[in-house]
């Protein structure tokens, strides 16, 4: 290859590296600047937003903020939709419509659509793409397009300490108790008791904890061992390497 062509290729590669660094640095800056917190709400004026709560940039569709209350230390990932009411600029009264407790986590691309009240309890974690709605389409009239028929609404209540797996769907009228696990891709309607694991579409209880008998059916994996106080990251890595050597 001629020398001048090698030089041209090297310059092109250098420009691409520089451009890549500039783009990534700019994106990191926008993520920081565009995040929403109690101190920096931007254009969003929530009914309440607690200390330590952060909505990552870019946000999804957000409207009806006046009727949305976010607790403390919530993590709202990128492209999460939060809406109160069927459309923007409605007067929804004096009470909040969408309430997140303290420490709630909503994974990337999740949607919480609150046409009537939705409450999510403290320390509930949601994986990516979770869909929670208090409104569903009706199809009573067989001669009218489903999308043009008036929807049905019912309140949704999710208790504290729940885990909603990736792609879970929570339908209107659902009531989840404390520390409920919803398997990925499940569709939940109706009432789910405390300390239950549900899976499927529609979701069914597949495991439940009772004070007298523990988990039934029994868990197939051993309980995780808590990390001792004062354990350093280096010590943890050493233990992991030791465990791998013992299994080899």
Automatic annotation (TrEMBL):
Its EC number is 2.3.1.79. It comes from the Bacteria. InterPro entries: Hexapep, Hexapep_transf_CS, Hexapeptide_acetyltransf, Trimer_LpxA-like_sf. One of its GO terms (cellular component) is cytosol. Keywords: Acyltransferase, Repeat, Transferase. Gene3D superfamilies: Hexapeptide repeat proteins (2.160.10.10). GO terms for molecular function: maltose O-acetyltransferase activity. Belongs to the transferase hexapeptide repeat family. PANTHER family: ACETYLTRANSFERASE C18B11.09C-RELATED (PTHR23416:SF23), SIALIC ACID SYNTHASE-RELATED (PTHR23416). This is Maltose O-acetyltransferase. It comes from Streptomyces lavendulae subsp. lavendulae. The gene is maa1.
